[in-house]
Amino acid sequence: QDGALKAYGAGLLSSFGELEYACSPDRPAGGTDERPELLPWEPAVAAHQTYPITCYQPTYFVAESMEDACVRMREFCDSLHRPFNVIYDPKTSSVRVDANVELEDYKVTLQSGESM
After folding, report:
1. How far is the first Cα of the chain from the last one, in angstroms, to the nearest whole number?
2. Three-state SS for 98?
3. Maximum CA pair distance of the chain?
4. How far apart are CA 47 and CA 49, in angstroms?
5. How far is CA 42 from the centre of its chain?
6. How far apart are CA 17 and CA 19, in angstroms?
7. Exposed, middle or buried, 51 (CB in 10 Å: 0-12/13-18/19+)?
8. Which distant-in-sequence residues (6+ apart) come within 8 Å of 114 by Cβ?
9. Which of 98, 46, 95 is nearest to 73 (CA)?
10. How many other C-beta atoms lie within 10 A of the C-beta of residue 52?
11. Which residue among 21, 50, 104, 116 has the highest number of C-beta atoms inside a 10 angstrom radius?
12. Contact between residue 39 and residue 61 where contact means Cβ atoms under 8 Å apart
């Protein structure tokens, strides 16, 4: 925004060192001279990105603005095939699924090859 990087996300915002590493134009930052790769925010690409959990991320996705990030995320979500709908009820702060969905139908493969 206005030529400066701004951060969004619980993981990044919870680590001052990683926040500095990801967003600072100066080096060293976050205790390292390395720079992360900055890619355009494409949710379909980000969904397949592997993320190490024991070091700073080598890659970050950058949107033009928060509005751009939201628009791209909505477009990505609208493109997903789902044989059900998820409905948010603001009165109860709960989510309802309008079809019987079994977890086995939507297995998630973890990086280690295990299923969730």
Report:
1. 37
2. coil
3. 52
4. 6
5. 10
6. 5
7. exposed
8. none
9. 46
10. 9
11. 21
12. yes
Q: Model-level pTM?
A: 0.68
3-state SS, one letter per residue, for 39-86: EECCHHHHCCCCCCCCCCCCEEEECCCHHHHHHHHHHHHHHCCCCCCE
Tell how far CA 9 is from the center of its chain.
Answer: 7
Candidates 106, 64, 67, 65; CA nearest to 83 is 106
Picking from 111, 112, 113, 11, the residue whose alpha carbon sits closest to that of residue 61 is 11
Residue 38 backbone phi and psi in degrees, to 5: -110, 120
Residues with pLDDT less than 50, the chain? 108, 110, 113-116
Q: What is the pLDDT of residues 97-111, one digit of tens each?
A: 887 666 555 554 545
